[in-house]
Amino acid sequence: MITLDTMREPSLEGKKYDIRVRPFQASDLSTVREMFLASMVNQSDSPFAKAMKGQLTAPLSWASYAAFVVGLIVRRWCSKRIGVSLSLLGSIIFAVHRTVLYIGLRRRVERNLKADLADIAGHYGMKEVADRNTGAVRYTPSGKSGFWIAEVGSEGKEPEAIGCVGLDANTNADPTSAELRRMSVVSSYRRKGVALLLVRALMEHSRENGIKTVFFSTSSFQEGAMKMYQRYGWKYQGKEDVSFWSQKIYWHNFSIQVDDFSL
Ligand SMILES: CC(C)(COP(=O)(O)OP(=O)(O)OC[C@H]1O[C@@H](n2cnc3c(N)ncnc32)[C@H](O)[C@@H]1OP(=O)(O)O)[C@@H](O)C(=O)NCCC(=O)NCCS
Fold first, then answer.
1. Is residue 85 assigned to a domain?
2. pLDDT in tens, 41-74
3. Does the chain have fewer CB atoms within 10 Å around its N or its C terminus?
């Protein structure tokens, strides 16, 4: 357990918190899904928000703005009919472009919510184990995969989940490598080392379960994540172009040898 007493968030300033990492439990499911939606869709720095903002300055959008403006000029000085048609065409291209991007991104998010995030315990191999003393049943990782929660406790309050990470050994055929997935920390607790605690738990589990390489991919919209993984020793393995409707998007791939992780 780690005590954080230097908080950068003004509302948290001066308070003491105990942060610990524990295995995912059934009651965490909706919180993890909310964290995923917040960090991927709802926050202003989420990939979803950045992609929608990026669309405003995509080449196709500039073409639609140009068609709209040229249409206004043509309407004023040459032909009303051609001018109106051109402006209308510009507006339609822009609206279709934005709508298709929005629907495409929403579908990707929904696919994620219906995949591993629909049944985290099942997908990440969390098995129920009864406590010898109390008889209480709790999830614990039963194989190479696993899912962990960072929680914060403060005096007189129930612990609150503030971050999560999964290790998925099912996305590749090599039994000695596994993928880090679903890393997320709630925004008011970022830049305080919570992700490091999660990565440590994941690395410890990897070591104990014969995993030698951990890899992950993140999108070009997640610069913070890329900086963090490089800071924690991950090696850049190149990028894949997954651009979508004139919206440039790359997947950046990283990996680390478990034995090289020493933080
Ligand atoms: C990426 C994320 C998990 C980092 O969590 P975190 O708890 O804030 O990370 P840490 O506090 O352990 O970060 C440690 C270091 O990483 C780097 N880092 C982390 N976030 C950064 C950011 N937004 N910009 C620049 N560097 C960053 C810094 O070097 C930081 O150290 P410092 O605060 O002393 O400068 C969090 O920002 C997040 O949830 N982002 C949205 C979801 C996401 O992108 N997930 C990754 C998908 S693979």
1. no
2. 999 999 999 999 999 998 899 999 999 999 999 9
3. N
